[in-house]
């Protein structure tokens, strides 16, 4: 029997076929999960085309900076999934372009707040709404996507690195508090992959080239490898794992430079 037969998964963060969230969605669907994908209005066309590749996958509009839209998205998910949710995928990150390009010490107040709101607080906001739906299923799994810049200086990653650090800390606190409801909370930390968000990071190509030279496996990773690792964390195979950051970066994170 497929690992996720009968499981319901709500996925935030699909923008196009290169999205980490899409790689995760494909892996979950391949193991029997029923999906619902959220989308930003400007990305609807691309997300709809992808959803058609997994027959029966509904779309839900949602701007994560709006509490009203988050409420509506989870209410719709509850309707689609008969009141129960097993898996929540959070793969969302954003910082204003100028605050990525300028030196970190020149980060604007609004840019800082925007990056933390969209990239980190949104996980907390989603978890709060997911808890009652997961309780109805006897527990669940929440998974987010982070990056090693939360721990080490990656030039030009700037305020996004701070947001990822906040995201990882949020994972630990959520894991601690939601464990009482049999809800696991983890993060996957991939190497630099060619996503829509990554292409907005100055020096992204340099990051990819450096990883290929330094990582023990002497290569970069593929989106499918992120999907497979995420599938593991969301499946019963990882039922004893919570509060963790799983690196999927060809071993890059163990190196000193």
UniProtKB/TrEMBL annotation:
Documented EC number(s): 1.3.1.9
GO biological process: fatty acid biosynthetic process
InterPro entries hit by this protein: Enoyl-ACP_Rdtase_NADH, NAD(P)-bd_dom_sf, SDR_fam
Keyword field: Fatty acid biosynthesis, Fatty acid metabolism, Lipid biosynthesis, Lipid metabolism, NAD, Oxidoreductase
Family according to the record: Belongs to the short-chain dehydrogenases/reductases (SDR) family. FabI subfamily.
Top enzyme class: oxidoreductase
Lineage summary: Bacteria, Bacillati, Chloroflexota, Ktedonobacteria, Thermogemmatisporales
Keyword tRNA processing annotated: no
Residues passing through the membrane, by range: none
UniProt keyword Oxidoreductase present: yes
Protein name per UniProt: Enoyl-[acyl-carrier-protein] reductase [NADH]
UniProt xrefs under SUPFAM superfamilies: NAD(P)-binding Rossmann-fold domains
Positions with a binding annotation for substrate: 95
Organism: Thermogemmatispora tikiterensis
One GO MF term attached to the UniProt entry: enoyl-[acyl-carrier-protein] reductase (NADH) activity
Functional pathway: Lipid metabolism; fatty acid biosynthesis
Binding site for NAD(+): 13, 19-20, 40, 63-64, 92, 164, 193-197
Active site: 147, 157
Known catalytic reactions: a 2,3-saturated acyl-[ACP] + NAD(+) = a (2E)-enoyl-[ACP] + NADH + H(+)
């Amino acid at each position: 029997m497929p690992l996720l037969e009968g499981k319901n998964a709500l996925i935030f963060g699909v923008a196009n076929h290169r999205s980490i969230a899409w790689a995760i969605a494909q892996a979950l669907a391949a193991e029997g999960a029923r999906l619902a994908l959220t989308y930003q209005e400007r990305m609807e066309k691309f997300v709809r085309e992808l959803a058609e590749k997994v027959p029966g996958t509904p779309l839900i509009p949602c701007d994560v900076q709006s509490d009203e839209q988050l409420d509506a998205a989870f209410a719709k998910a509850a309707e689609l999934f008969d009141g129960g949710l097993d898996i929540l995928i959070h793969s969302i990150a954003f910082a204003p372009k100028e605050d990525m390009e300028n030196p970190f010490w020149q980060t604007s107040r609004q840019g800082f707040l925007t990056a933390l709101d969209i990239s980190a607080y949104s996980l907390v906001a989603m978890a709060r709404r997911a808890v009652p739906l997961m309780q109805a299923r006897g527990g669940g799994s929440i998974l987010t996507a982070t990056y090693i810049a939360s721990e080490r200086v990656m030039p030009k990653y700037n305020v996004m690195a701070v947001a990822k650090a906040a995201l990882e800390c949020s994972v630990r606190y959520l894991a601690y508090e939601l464990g009482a409801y049999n809800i696991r909370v983890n993060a996957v930390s991939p190497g630099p992959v060619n996503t829509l968000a990554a292409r907005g990071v100055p020096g992204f190509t340099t990051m990819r080239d450096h990883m290929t030279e330094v990582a023990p496996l002497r290569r970069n990773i593929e989106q499918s490898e992120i999907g497979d690792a995420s599938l593991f964390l969301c499946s019963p195979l990882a039922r004893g794992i919570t509060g963790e950051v799983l690196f999927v970066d060809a071993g890059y994170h163990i190196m000193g430079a």
